[in-house]
């Protein structure tokens, strides 16, 4: 297989998640990976398990369109919009990490507006972190 245009498009986590779910269930007409494609099956499985712990599981094409429309006044790049969609930032620090030169491009009020728009338009995780995300407790006093 040859890559013709490697920069043709960037995919959101939701698009990757939907594609992998369709492949896994066989609803898109593709067959499940054969035994000769074990590595592909492993990568697909691992990717799905990771994506299931991200905000993309509650997203839809309508959610993405609504967010993109709501972000238009901020003059963000496509990559920045994608970062905001995929990561669903909840603090000003996260916004500053995702938007290049945000201190010069956005005021504090605009950053607060961005956070409000993101929390209103992108479904998030309301549940506490899972055990896998919790730090391990180590008893250092054990002799």
UniProtKB/TrEMBL annotation:
Region annotation (Disordered) ranges: 121-143
Pfam families the record matches: RNA_pol_Rpb4
Keywords recorded for this protein, A-Z: Cell membrane, DNA-directed RNA polymerase, Membrane, Nucleus, Transcription
Compartments reported by the entry: Cell membrane; Nucleus
Annotated SMART domains: RPOL4c
Membrane topology note: Peripheral membrane protein
Domain RNA polymerase Rpb4/RPC9 core, chain residue ranges per copy: 1-125
Record's GO cellular component terms: plasma membrane; RNA polymerase III complex
Main location (coarse class): membrane
GO biological process: transcription initiation at RNA polymerase III promoter
GO MF entry, a single one: nucleotide binding
Function as written in the Swiss-Prot or TrEMBL entry: Accessory protein for the calcitonin gene-related peptide (CGRP) receptor. It modulates CGRP responsiveness in a variety of tissues. DNA-dependent RNA polymerase catalyzes the transcription of DNA into RNA using the four ribonucleoside triphosphates as substrates. Specific peripheric component of RNA polymerase III (Pol III) which synthesizes small non-coding RNAs including 5S rRNA, snRNAs, tRNAs and miRNAs from at least 500 distinct genomic loci. With POLR3H/RPC8 forms a mobile stalk that protrudes from Pol III core and functions primarily in transcription initiation. Pol III plays a key role in sensing and limiting infection by intracellular bacteria and DNA viruses.
Family: Belongs to the eukaryotic RPC9 RNA polymerase subunit family.
Quaternary organization: Component of the RNA polymerase III complex consisting of 17 subunits: a ten-subunit horseshoe-shaped catalytic core composed of POLR3A/RPC1, POLR3B/RPC2, POLR1C/RPAC1, POLR1D/RPAC2, POLR3K/RPC10, POLR2E/RPABC1, POLR2F/RPABC2, POLR2H/RPABC3, POLR2K/RPABC4 and POLR2L/RPABC5; a mobile stalk composed of two subunits POLR3H/RPC8 and CRCP/RPC9, protruding from the core and functioning primarily in transcription initiation; and additional subunits homologous to general transcription factors of the RNA polymerase II machinery, POLR3C/RPC3-POLR3F/RPC6-POLR3G/RPC7 heterotrimer required for transcription initiation and POLR3D/RPC4-POLR3E/RPC5 heterodimer involved in both transcription initiation and termination.
Protein name: DNA-directed RNA polymerase III subunit RPC9
């Amino acid at each position: 297989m040859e890559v013709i245009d490697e920069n043709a498009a960037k995919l959101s986590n939701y698009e990757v998640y939907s594609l992998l779910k369709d492949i896994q269930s066989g609803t898109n007409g593709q067959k499940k990976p054969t035994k000769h494609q074990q590595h592909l099956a492993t990568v697909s499985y691992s990717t799905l398990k990771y994506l299931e712990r991200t905000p993309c599981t509650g997203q839809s094409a309508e959610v993405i369109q609504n967010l993109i429309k709501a972000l238009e006044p901020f003059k963000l790049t496509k990559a920045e919009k994608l970062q905001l969609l995929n990561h669903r930032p909840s603090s000003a620090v996260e916004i500053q990490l995702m938007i290049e030169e945000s201190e010069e491009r956005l005021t504090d009020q605009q950053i607060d507006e961005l956070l409000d728009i993101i929390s209103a338009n992108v479904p998030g995780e309301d549940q506490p972190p899972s055990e896998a995300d919790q730090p391990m407790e180590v008893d250092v006093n054990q002799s």
